[in-house]
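Need tokens for this chain, all 381 residues.
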Amino acid sequence: MINITPLAWAWTDWLIETKFLNNELWRWLALLGVLLVGLLVGKVVSLLLQKHGQVLCDRQKSWLLGRLLRSLSGPVTMLALAVGLYIAAGFMNLRYESSPPAEGGVPVVTDLKSLWLNACSTIAVLATGWFIYKLVDAIEFFLLRWTSKTNTLLDDQLVPIIRKTLRIFVVVVAGLFIAQNIFHWQIGAMLAGLGIGGLAFALAAKDTLANFFGSVTIFTDRPFQMGERIVVKGYDGTVEEVGFRSTRIRLLNGHLVTVPNSVIANETVENISRRPYIKRTLEITVTYDTAPEKLQRGVEIIRQMLDARKDHFAEGFPPRVYFGDFGAASLNIVVYYWFTPPDWWEYLAFNHDFNTELLRRFNEEAIKFAFPTQTLYLKQD
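Here are the structure tokens for all 381 residues:
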């Protein structure tokens, strides 16, 4: 029978006496065990929070608590890691003595405990910042519920911008907190030293600031919404996205144009999508040999056709038909009407039907359409 007692004592002596980076092996194994247990506990708690948070999110009345639990499910593992490192600081030897440079010299002692604790605090602050970072999703949910009740789609575009701004703010605040309260950097002095550089940066970034204030003007005045067709600086297309710096417009030919917001704020914006009707001016030309009775008959035919389609015209804007002018090669009948609804494709279909009937009825009445002609008289001596 094998006696394992001497072997066990040998292993025990080896773990106690063998050192690595001024710490016995048992300390490193204890550190590994603490970290593994901490990560395991953090992972289990994270899964539980994620599961119960999802269940609460599915309920209408408990969705806020559910989002809080889901937001905490990720950072809790990092918090468990910070707690494990903090516990390990109690049994790890964090004082390191280096040999003196010369005989009789004083050994140099380096205490790494403060650095270790600073690392624990940093991880804990990062976990807290991560939790607040995730809470921005709840704020976004509130904003989306609010913007869904408004008629404009520009508010919907503002929500992701606010979300990005809040997340950047959380990251900056967390970084400044770590720098000033954990590592004790003089943030105020650093910011004061950057004052002159900040002024130079502001002068260099004046166009960016102009675009930012242009975006503020767009969001406050709301000259257009997402998906509306506008004309600005000669660009005719549909608004796809409005950002802090620029607005993206999808042109009718499919090209994507990015226009700086400062330009849009200072230019005349024609919003085609908000027109209440589409106006058409139609000039019908007939030949000069048309009798006055025939010309009057043509006017009556057009008025009959328009009266049969009166449901398609804007209220307060009845269609108009007149014998307008004597042209260079024709007698001109001018027609005005204001078509509703202001849908371009319905407007084209209406014009197609109107033009086809007009051509047929004029041919039946033998009213001839004119075309540009010239008569040359040759004088002979």
